[in-house]
Amino acid sequence: MTMNDRAVSTAVGYALALGIVTLLTIGLVMGFAPLVTGQQAEATHSTLEVLGNDLAGDIERVDHLAAAAGPNGTVVLRSELPERVGASGYQIEIDETGENQRYEIRLRSTGPETIATVGFRTGIEIDDTTGTLDGGPLEIRYDGDRLVVSEDA
């Protein structure tokens, strides 16, 4: 064995060790990426459910105040929802479920894509021409006839 043989075995050993560490690192990253993504989606869904419940509570609050105010009364409430959930914006849809003023709030996030649905009931009809609203502050108003949910200007 000569001196040159030892230098080659050191370099080969170093290259093999570097290759093994690289493969292990790639394996760990690939293994944990779905776990992190799944937890992010679950956290986003939970946050959307909380926001949906907050909005449903605000709408029900206006509904009760409007019933007390009567047909000549006016009620306006600003619902303070965040503009973003996690790293993305979200959209809000309010639809009647077809049953005696029962409604569903659907909140949809795009990154990660998830949908949360919250049901509630009102005594006063909600205007169904609202369409899709962007997340953020909303205004809930009673106009003497029905409840109107709109983006806060």
Strand percentage: 25-35%
Fraction of residues in H or I helices: 40-55%
- Sheet having the most strands: 5 strands, antiparallel
Shape assignment: rod-shaped
> Which sequence of SSEs, written as H and E, runs from N to C?
HEEEEEEEE
Radius of gyration: 27 Å
Q: Briefly note the structural class of the backbone.
A: alpha+beta
Q: Pick out the low-confidence regions.
A: none
Look at the structure and give the mean pLDDT: 87
Q: How many beta strands in the DSSP annotation? A: 8
Q: In angstroms, what separates the terminal alpha carbons?
A: 83 Å
Alpha plus pi helix count: 1
Structural features:
single chain, 153 residues, alpha+beta, 3-stranded antiparallel β-sheet, rod-shaped
Layout of strands and helices, then pairs:
Blueprint: H1 3-69, E1 75-79, E2 84-85, E3 88-96, E4 102-110, E5 113-121, E6 132-134, E7 138-142, E8 147-151
Antiparallel strand pairs: 1-7, 2-3, 3-4, 3-6, 4-5, 7-8
What is this entry, summarized?
The chain is an alpha+beta fold and 153 residues long. The protein has a domain at 46-151. It has one helix spanning 3-69; strands at 75-79, 84-85, 88-96, 102-110, 113-121, 132-134, 138-142, 147-151.
Describe this structure in words.
The N and C termini lie far apart (83 Å). Helix content is 44%, strand content 31%. It has 153 residues and is α+β, with helices and mostly antiparallel strands. It has a domain at 46-151. The longest helix has 67 residues, at 3-69. Strand 3 (88-96) and strand 4 form a beta hairpin. The mean pLDDT is 87. Strands 2, 3, 4, 5 and 6 form a five-stranded antiparallel β-sheet that branches. The chain is rod-shaped and about 95 Å long.
